[in-house]
Amino acid sequence: MDATAKKYVDLFRTVKIATAATVDEAGRPQARIINVMLARDDGMYIVTSRGKPFHKQLTETGRIALAAMCPDCQSLKFTGRLRVVDKSWVDRVFEENPGMNEVYPGKSRYALDAFHIYEGQGEWFDLLNYPINRESFAYGGGAAEPAGFVIGESCIGCGACAKACPQQCIAPGKPYAIAPQHCLQCGLCAEVCPAGAVRRLHR
What we know:
single chain, Pnp Oxidase, Chain A
């Protein structure tokens, strides 16, 4: 895991409380509040009991999405893959989160399974400063997926995109260029471009 990913994985642990989203067997989105129990160089760890629909959705899909609000009102989002790991990880979770003993005393802790979120990609987003800032990260062999918009070679240099941009993060050139770390991804540049030169990237 590189330093950027480690910084944001650790931040998920610092924030601890996150919304976790899955999809049920009917394809309906489901969300709940969870705790990120461990953050390590190989990823994040969570727990849930085998009786919960959440557990069923995690094991059937092997996928999870997380979203959290940081103390200074920046947001974190993440989507990744996960798997059940052995019971020793439940013990490690309880060692680092002793309050769990009040909820699951004694051996009742083993109603839980620990899940290792072993790969994925995410983004940190700060909306409180001007211009806004965002940074992507990934770990586990994946790469951070590009997002937002890019201006192609059919740009005619009219400057309509730069004038429309609420963050003023589009610079003149051939073609004009968007600074992705400051882009709101609002799409106004694409809407006003008379040449159709602005296209959306992945996501």
